[in-house]
Amino acid sequence: MFTGLVTDVGIIEAVRDQDGLRRFTIAASYDVADIAMGASIMHAGVCLTVVDFGARDGGCWFDVEAVPETLSLTILGDWDVGTRVNLEQSLKLGDELGGHFVFGHVDGVGEITSIDPEGASYRVTVRPPADISRYFARKGSVALNGVSLTVADALENGDFQVAIIPHTWDVTTLSDLTETDRVNLEIDMLARYVARMIGADAPDKNL
Fold first, then answer.
1. CA distance 35 to 54
2. How confident is the model at residue 178 (pLDDT cuts 50, 70, 90)?
3. CA separation for the pair 28, 104 (Å, rounded)
4. Which of 1.10.1410.10, 2.40.30.20, 3.40.50.720, 3.30.390.10 is the CATH number of 8-89?
5. Stronger pLDDT, 12 or 90, i.e. the higher one
6. What's the whole-model pTM score?
């Protein structure tokens, strides 16, 4: 479990396909003492498991692997050497919950349709897949490439907007975004349960 508060921006140093998996080597500024085999780290909104790691000047490196389904259903299939990635280590008992509960399970890939400066901040419009657009409500929460954000507006066409403050813009990869870029989206868990309780996501009884 995570909070959507990015704790580092890693850089992809190597990409290798082997045994039906894609292995990424990522350089990070984390203390190697805080990394362990099998640890869960969120990468741009996707929870991946550390399968190898080591120390390096200024931090550490670690390897994670992704299966073909993850590559096809998220933006991880677009990653190459040099890609910057939002990172967050898993939440520990007693840690401050400053964002919202994020699970590292991407619900869909959205598209950036506009980025508009608003003074020192930015208003970003996202087009989610049609089948999940109903989950985004004004003042609700969303994880965008692993960053916990508040929905500033939900538009009639199904798009939604987020307002990004300068600090978040500067310390995450959100500042790398341009129009038409694809982004990982995770729905707020509360929205999932509300939809289920009101019957919006009830199983089809005809199946």
1. 9
2. very high
3. 19
4. 2.40.30.20
5. 12
6. 0.90
